[in-house]
């Protein structure tokens, strides 16, 4: 299988300026919060208010991701001793285990039919499972480290990380295309229209065209560390984890304006994810 490589030739940093709040459609953000002992799942409004705790277990609940309709949340939990996929309603009720497969960072496809995640079978690989728990498939299985994935809006393609570079492929593991060659990429999020990626590169959130052109640093003018970005449904805003010890949740416009820190806690807040558009 021939892979196309796209070289990122330049690094562009833009000057950021703040503006009044003008985010999306009164959506919620789901995230994990460390309570001093365990990671729990919380939600808040996109302005940082109306904080609600959804899980309360003597176990870690991590890496939450919304269904596209905003009705359900998939997450990883070690409540039975090891990290498995769980699903719950958006208010924290109706929790059930989807599969006994060990997982990191489950992510729902936009059409709701599939969930991608990664785990190790000697090296990290990307897996896909149907949202009813059937059809578990290792779609990379190539002896190279493949990890965090993000769906395109067509639910047919994914972006993922291989050896700390961005690649794309179909959900069956075909048509693999390399997008970046710089290395040091640590997370990836496809925009709602599929034309851009938000990604973590050397402690900052960058936005790049999906063909690998025009990388733009969004966050370094505001925070020294930024990671794990998530797009709002309109593509206008990006939420991410900022700083360290403790990490906090922040939001910024996708053009680099309107930075705002949303949380201020004694322990880490991490893995934020914008809600899909509710029914």
Which structural class do you get from the secondary structure elements?
mainly beta
Quick check: average pLDDT? 90
Radius of gyration: 17 Å
Strand order of the largest sheet: 1-20-19-18-17
What attributes does this structure have?
279 residues; mainly beta; 5-stranded mixed sheet; 4-stranded antiparallel sheet; 25 strands; globular; disordered N terminus
Concise summary:
The chain is an all-beta fold and 279 residues long.
What does this structure look like?
There is one protein chain. With 279 residues, this protein is mainly β. It starts with 11 loop residues before the first strand and ends in a 5-residue tail after the last strand. A hairpin with a 2-residue loop joins strand 18 and strand 19 (204-209). The strands form 6 sheets. The protein has a 5-stranded mixed beta sheet, with no helix packed on it. Strands 4-3-2-25 form a 4-stranded antiparallel beta sheet, with no helix packed on it. 0% of the residues lie in helices and 46% in strands.
Please write out the topology.
Layout: E1 12-13, E2 28-34, E3 39-45, E4 52-53, E5 61-66, E6 72-77, E7 84-89, E8 96-99, E9 104-108, E10 114-120, E11 124-130, E12 137-138, E13 146-151, E14 157-162, E15 165-170, E16 177-178, E17 185-190, E18 196-201, E19 204-209, E20 216-217, E21 226-231, E22 237-242, E23 248-253, E24 260-261, E25 269-274
